[in-house]
Amino acid sequence: MALRKLLFTLPSEGKLEGTVRRDGGPLHEAVREAMINCITYCDYLLGGVLRIDRRTDRIVMRNPGTLRISPERIYNGDYTQARNSTIQKMLRMIGFGDNIGSGFMKIIKAWDTLGFNNPEIHEEPEVNEVWLTLPLSVKSQINSQAYSQINNGHNIKDYSRVDIDDNSDSQIISHINSHSDLSVIQRSILKHMVSFPESSIEEIANALGTKPESIRYQRRLMQDKVVTEKAGSNKAGQWKITFIG
Fold this sequence. Notes:
Layout: H1 2-8, E1 15-17, E2 20-22, H2 26-41, E3 51-54, E4 58-64, H3 71-75, H4 85-93, H5 103-114, E5 120-124, E6 129-135, H6 144-152, E7 160-162, H7 169-177, H8 184-195, H9 201-208, H10 212-221, E8 226-231, E9 238-243
Parallel strand pairs: 7-9
Antiparallel strand pairs: 1-2, 3-4, 4-6, 5-6, 8-9
Helix pairs in contact: 2-5, 6-8, 7-8, 8-9, 9-10
């Protein structure tokens, strides 16, 4: 029930399987894995409380106990046996939990794909707790020159556009900025497509300091609000932006 409530507060990548919609995506899968890790590594003998704080810009999962290996080893993909192996086996029997040792790396990979700031894990010795912080804010590693060009609306003007009457790229960028349902990274992607209409997914990712998988994921997330398509070939084609509603 707690996991369901938490996932309900997060955006979901919906997919149709036949006539049935299946919600999920890397964000949901990673949060689910993080919660399972908290349960299986919690030290219940300490008498503390496993606590999950859903904040505006992050999720903080706190469980009683200490880390069994250093954070550096965890970030590098090392792992140790779960403190509660019986609980871990029970969860896997009902379909919760990944392969042994792959849980935290799955979280890291998902956060990298989403373009979010890196998860942090550390001990709070005063209260004998381990804290896992999952930021919900995007990385600010944007190429400064490209970002300046995008936001000033300069460069190429020969691009496709839909639902916009004004021919100036500054008007389109103004429309993107005023779209309240778009996240910061989604606005940056659209602005780059406007200013650099022939750019590839890889070039957009490089300019925004993220990975191509993150750009593709964000395009899928916003497809019910803004549809982005490449008209023509990948090298010579230009981005077509369609605003829905």
